[in-house]
Amino acid sequence: MSSKKKETLLELKIGLTDYCNYQCIMCMQTAHKGIYGNPEIKVEPLHKDQKGYMSFELFEKIIDDISRIKYKFKSISLQWLGESMLHKDLLKMIEYILNKNEENTFFEELIFFTNASLLDEEKSERLSLLFEKYQRTTLIVVFSIDSASKETYLKIHNVDNFEKVNSNIVYFLNKTKRLKNIYRIYRFLVMPENSFEAEKFLNFWAGITLNEYQLTWNEEKNFDIEKARDIINFKRVYSDELLSVQRLHEEVIQRLGGEKSYFHSGDGERPPCAAPFRTPLVNWDGRLSVCYPDDRLELSLVTLEDNSFESLWFGDKAQKMRKDILNRDFDKYDRCQRCGNYGGFPLRQSEIKLYGFEIKS
């Protein structure tokens, strides 16, 4: 095997846990009680089995396995449905994966999502030292904030932590701003409960960053790495009500002076989705799915505990699913029929070729 790995758009998510210390109204953690707090609109609880934490031994096995394949990952995220800072081995896991990428041949970006409620001064200092040690890896930390006031924060997150979280984030910013390899994203998921605070949110974090920031409108990672390392992000929330959430998102973008974001309205023929080509997901118990919005693991390819990533991700079951998606046979998969994000992953020709499929003109 050549030491030069093939560049890809693969974005791997590893769910270290599906436990969370928050009960946010827009999250699948609470949707069984009622989506957006509405008890008349409920879905089944996450998974149909036990929640848990990934063992360090399983994490080590998975990282060792995927670091040996011939493809380089675009990004690896150490979070899925839960709050990873609840995991007792989080810092140990971060150091392990960064050490595996010391030559920058395993992946380009390490991404970490957090509500920042557990990001105390000690953790910020330890993370700062860790990130300084591995400066060849691009590090992206996404803070889920979604509010510009205590009242809205409490309504959305069901926790009275607004001031504590902002203080934790500002401390982390001050500890890491000297590092050139780290990007901090302050995220605002646009929804009816907070859209009126968009300008206030922008002004607050613009002030905190001393007006040295980038503004992005949808996917958190769509920013210029050559520009400011603080990013204020206004993202469309995932919802089955595609048109209503998109209209609200576009209204906020227009108010803040941005450009229209990419979106497929649901009219006409549904485009093939890039998720089975791009976004492998590993649950805390090792189960591999082809799509990170697959919150009940309906598209699981079984477990990495007893199988290699390459044998599953490029195996017959995954390839059949990709063929079906290219042929727009979404009705074969219940999860695809319920998707509230179709069109959110535009498929690229290089991804089609990677899996050996012909590109249709």
Automatic annotation (TrEMBL):
Taxon lineage: Bacteria, Candidatus Muiribacteriota, Candidatus Muiribacteriia, Candidatus Muiribacteriales, Candidatus Muiribacteriaceae
Superkingdom field: Bacteria
InterPro entries registered for this protein in UniProt: 4Fe4S-binding_SPASM_dom, AdoMet-like_SPASM_containing, Aldolase_TIM, Radical_SAM_PqqE_MftC-like, rSAM, rSAM_sf
Keyword Transferase: no
Keyword 4Fe-4S in annotation: yes
Name this protein carries in UniProt: Uncharacterized protein
Domain 4Fe4S-binding SPASM residue range list: 273-339
Cofactor entry: [4Fe-4S] cluster
PANTHER family: PQQA PEPTIDE CYCLASE, RADICAL SAM DOMAIN PROTEIN
